[in-house]
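To: structure desk
From: M.T.
Subject: fold request, one chain
Message: Could you run this one when you get a chance? Sequence is below, nothing fancy, just the single chain.
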Amino acid sequence: MNRPLVQSPDGVTLVGGGPVSRAELALCLRYAPKILAADGGADRVLAAGHCPEAVVGDFDSISAAARAAIPVGRQFVIAEQATTDFDKALRSVEAPFVLAAGFTGARVDHGLAVLNALVRHADRCCVLVGARDVVFHAPARLDLSLRAGDRLSLFPMAPVTGQSEGLEWPIGGIGFAPDGMIGTSNRVVAGRVVLAMDGPGMLVILPRGRLAAAIRALRPEWRGPAG
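Reply: Done. Structure tokens follow.
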């Protein structure tokens, strides 16, 4: 499958089968109004009173009731088992950014697979939205507008180094690695934080309340929702 199943000039909300509150979904839809469901995420979307633009996955977890409620033309089975439903869905989107809800807070192995996909598909601008945090892959340069005292964590999925401005503990000169030094629980000390990474592999974790700041940093042309 090469063609995108969901296209949007704005953001797209991608919903998985893990826990997702109505507040999380409403927040995502405020910024990314089109919905794509990954397999069993279709049940979550329907339960919240919405119908997805499309459902993608191997369809091993979507309910029969959800399949009956969603038009057949919106259901896309991708049977291969080499990738996860999150991976399949992320590859199916053509949009400035994706907000992914329902992919954190469930099984640890599923969560790790999602983080792996964020790094492998670094060309896809995707932000994971959870109950307390947002997570995204750091581009080569990131310019964030935050508040002093905000938590900012860095977690490497590959060996990587970088530079920073605006953090209590600067990252310059540190060799990060998933089995070595990590950068969790750093703290913002200025209204502007700049990160420059020497390569791919670094995940950025912010409080959920900084979702809009994350989108603006990743997509500076974004002006936010109308109204």
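Reply (cont.): The domain at 141-218 is CATH 3.40.50.10240 (Rossmann fold). Let me know if you need anything else for the meeting.
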